[in-house]
Design a protein that fits this description.
The complex is a heterodimer of chains A (272) and B (114).
Chain A: E1 14-18, H1 42-45, H2 48-51, E2 61-68, H3 71-86, E3 90-95, H4 102-113, E4 119-125, H5 130-138, E5 141-146, H6 155-165, E6 172-176, E7 193-199, H7 206-209, H8 211-215, E8 219-223, H9 235-245, E9 251-253, H10 262-271
Parallel strand pairs in A: 3-6, 3-7, 4-5, 4-6, 7-8, 8-9
Antiparallel strand pairs in A: 1-5
Helix pairs in contact in A: 3-6, 4-5
Chain B: H1 3-19, E1 23-32, H2 40-51, E2 60-64, E3 68-72, E4 78-81, E5 95-99, E6 103-113
Parallel strand pairs in B: 1-2
Antiparallel strand pairs in B: 1-6, 3-4, 3-5
Classes of the chains: A alpha/beta (272), B alpha+beta (114).
């Protein structure tokens, strides 16, 4: 069973690196890369972690802990964040339900921005290399993390993936989380911002039904707006619902397939 | 069974096992805020099962549930928030949840060292 989430993952997540085609990224191979945000070195072996605990014998005593339940993940996320900041790498945690169009949006984003701005991707899915292949074909160096039956990425997986990714200093890393509006909301990955997607084929009330996910969002992309003439979706109601959960949240209507609204997405990225 | 609660329970046990690897734990005191998105009953359900073979096997689980609090950006007051979408008594929905999201291992009671 997965150690942080009870999602019954049978064994460690699997990482697969897919390089971008040579022409796609002007990668400077001379750039040095320190080994990893490092997740299991100093912290876990730090003797201070258990040496000040009381050693009672044969009688009950209270050991105050005052520890956040997800402290271990949050520590690792903090290390990822510091590691990324030192290198000027912008990392974004992309979350949505399955099928909202995260991968299509990233394909388009990589194709549009790649020539002017180095972009790479950490791709989270339970199984297959399908999405990593799509993004590598679009021009991004991509590391696929297969979580098995795990339902989210965590900070440890991202630390390993960042090591494998070798993103250039000053570049942008999109972390495409496992499609799920519940569990990923709990796990900080060390990202600079959280991008939540939903699409007009989902209900406009999604933000009210999954408030934890939407409360953590730094921006909300509403995808597939090219389908608005064919579906019963109220954009204003969606915006209102999102802002009930997260006051002031920006909603950017886009169509990743047709290109509508992508300039506002790229403007947001430039300011992130 | 919700993945969330099993996730949380596994994390609790992992954290205690790391801090007190040689101890037999009698009681675990948890704080689970009412707006944390975690259901205490589901954690209780998972705890016995997930604790088997660990230092918390057989331990009692004591859970306190801090009430939710909202802070209103319109009138500046704090008020009790029953759910994640609470509206301020002044009528404003421009509210930030400021309490009730706790998810903390407060303390454990240890009977002996093995």
């Amino acid at each position: 069973m997965c150690e942080t989430c009870g999602c019954d993952a049978a064994g460690a997540p699997r990482l697969t690196t897919l390089p971008a085609p040579d022409h796609a990224l002007g990668r400077d191979t001379a750039l040095g890369h320190d080994p990893a945000p490092g997740r299991d070195t100093a912290h876990d072996n730090d003797p201070a972690h258990d040496h000040d605990r009381p050693h009672g014998r044969d009688h009950a005593h209270v050991v105050p802990l005052g520890q956040r339940v997800l402290a271990h993940n949050d520590d690792l996320a903090g290390r990822n964040r510091a590691w990324l900041a030192e290198r000027g790498v912008l990392a974004l945690n992309m979350m949505s339900s399955p099928g909202s169009g995260k991968t299509t949006l990233l394909e388009r984003t990589v194709a549009d921005l790649g020539p002017s701005r180095p972009v790479s991707v950490i791709e989270g899915d339970q199984e297959t290399l399908l999405d990593a292949r799509r993004l590598a074909a679009a021009g991004a160096r991509t590391v696929q993390v297969n979580t098995g039956s795990g339902c989210h990425l965590d900070a440890a997986m991202v630390a390993d993936a960042l090591t494998a990714l070798e993103a250039p200093d000053g570049s942008t890393v999109f972390i495409e989380n496992v499609g799920n509006l519940v569990c990923p909301a709990l796990f900080d990955l060390g990202e600079r911002a959280r991008v939540v997607l939903m699409s007009v084929t989902e209900g406009a009330d999604k933000p009210l039904k999954y408030p934890h996910m939407f409360r953590g969002a730094d921006v909300l992309l509403l995808n597939k707006i090219d389908l608005l003439p064919y579906v019963d979706f109220d954009v204003d109601a969606c915006r209102d619902a999102a802002r009930r959960v997260r006051p002031g949240l920006s909603l950017l209507p886009v169509s990743a397939t047709r290109g509508d609204g992508l300039d506002s997405w790229y403007d947001w990225l430039a300011d992130a | 069974m919700s993945v969330h609660e099993l996730a949380v329970t596994e994390s609790v046990i992992a954290a205690i096992s790391m801090q007190l690897p040689d101890s037999q734990v009698a009681v675990v005191h948890l704080e689970i805020g009412r707006l944390s998105g975690v259901m205490p009953d589901a954690v209780r359900f998972c705890f016995e099962l997930a604790g088997e073979g660990t230092c918390v096997e057989g331990a009692r689980l004591d859970i306190t549930e801090p009430e939710g609090t909202g802070s209103c950006a319109s009138c500046g007051t704090s008020f009790p928030a029953r759910d994640a979408l609470a509206v301020c008594p002044c009528g404003s929905a421009d509210v930030t949840i400021s309490g009730g999201a706790e998810l903390t291992i407060k303390a454990v009671e240890v009977t002996d060292d093995v």
